[in-house]
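Quick one: co-fold with adenosine monophosphate.
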Amino acid sequence: MPIDATLPYDDTNIFARILRGEIPSTRVYEDAFALAFHDIAPQAPTHLLVIPKGRYVSWDDFAAKADDAEIAGFVRAVGHVAREAGLVEPGYRLLANIGGHGHQEVPHLHVHIFGGRQLGAMLPR
Ligand code: AMP
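Sure, here it is.
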């Protein structure tokens, strides 16, 4: 069920719990600003999630409220994780689902990194 991305941040969401170490995840990268881990239901041979450590629901929430160091750190982390996963040469896709029409299910900003196969057209027609 998609979430309403205009709602306040919910500290009980599953990615907040992963950040606090309350539930397990298969971590591939962590720094002061970001955490990256494998998606639990992969939709491509490589399917990673990168999340900022701060309490942000969506991209626009993050863009409006995060400070410059958080934004730079998160963007750099996404690039670092893609590079370390060996995706730069074959190519890959970044995706951030936001709110109802974006079919966002977890109300903590996350960027999906897909790779490892030809990913086809951008959106289903
Ligand atoms: P969305 O909010 O639609 O961008 O998608 C949320 C993503 O989080 C889905 O791809 C889920 O498979 C993934 N997901 C949900 N719970 C977990 C979890 N505990 N560990 C890793 N990935 C998860």
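If it helps, The longest strand covers residues 46-52.
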